[in-house]
Amino acid sequence: MNDPSPAVVASGRLSLTPDVIRAGLRRPPPPPEPLDLHMISLKEGTKVTDAAVLVPLVNRAGGVQVLLTQRTAHLRDHGGQVSFPGGRVEPEDLDREATALREMAEEVGIAADRVMLLGRLPGYEIPSGFRITPVVGWLEPPFEVVPDAFEVADVFEAPLAHFLDPANYQRREYRFRGRHRHYLAIPWAGRYIWGATAGMLYSLCRMLNGQ
């Protein structure tokens, strides 16, 4: 089977099955480009915290959706932001996939055996010191969502097609700890998705579009 073109994938005319997504994730990571400036290399001496997130893709009748969470505002790390279920690697986690699945169950209430793992996206290091491994998973409805009220203010789904269109991504700037930084944002339906989460979605966009 020939690789699908970016236009076909982004338009939604291609059926994004688990096999198609798995094949896209097996491609070599695309070379960096200007919109990848949100991804940084941590300065020497920075305390690094290893973490993993699950990028959950939901097979809905109207098209594949991405499941996302809105973190509660009081959290010390990235409070109030839109994110994927995820967190720090714990000593008992066998691998990063185990971390992502455990965090999915803890934060959203979806058990590991409901998730079909499809592969990984390129890792991310972010200014707050987290080194994140994004793990992509596939969910077949029906399933029940039971958010952890301490960490999760809301759980919602957004169309994967929105995130597969590179034109929807915006480049923004801000200052962090005295340094001028660039980041990505991809607003959707009144939600402001930015930073590492937008960056991971952009990686998924490029991998599945073969860019």
Task: Explain how this protein is built.
By secondary structure, the protein is of the alpha+beta class. The chain has a single domain, classed as Nucleoside Triphosphate Pyrophosphohydrolase (Alpha-Beta Complex), CATH 3.90.79.10. 22% of the residues lie in helices and 31% in strands. The longest helix is centred in the C-terminal third of the chain and has 15 residues. The protein is globular. The two termini are 17 Å apart. 35% of the residues are buried.
Largest sheet: 8 strands, mixed
Number of strands: 10
Predict the CATH topology. Nucleoside Triphosphate Pyrophosphohydrolase
Rounded average pLDDT:
84
SSE layout and pairing:
Elements: H1 6-11, H2 18-25, E1 49-60, E2 63-71, E3 82-83, E4 86-88, H3 96-108, E5 115-120, E6 124-125, E7 130-139, E8 152-159, H4 160-163, E9 170-176, E10 179-185, H5 195-209
Parallel strand pairs: 1-7
Antiparallel strand pairs: 1-2, 1-4, 2-3, 2-8, 5-7, 6-7, 9-10
Helix pairs in contact: 2-5
Name a few traits of the molecule.
disordered N terminus, 5 helices, two-stranded antiparallel ribbon, Nucleoside Triphosphate Pyrophosphohydrolase, alpha+beta, 211 residues
Summarize the model shown.
This protein is of the alpha+beta class and 211 residues long. The chain has helices spanning 6-11, 18-25, 96-108, 160-163, 195-209; strands spanning 49-60, 63-71, 82-83, 86-88, 115-120, 124-125, 130-139, 152-159, 170-176, 179-185. It is globular, with a radius of gyration of 16 Å.
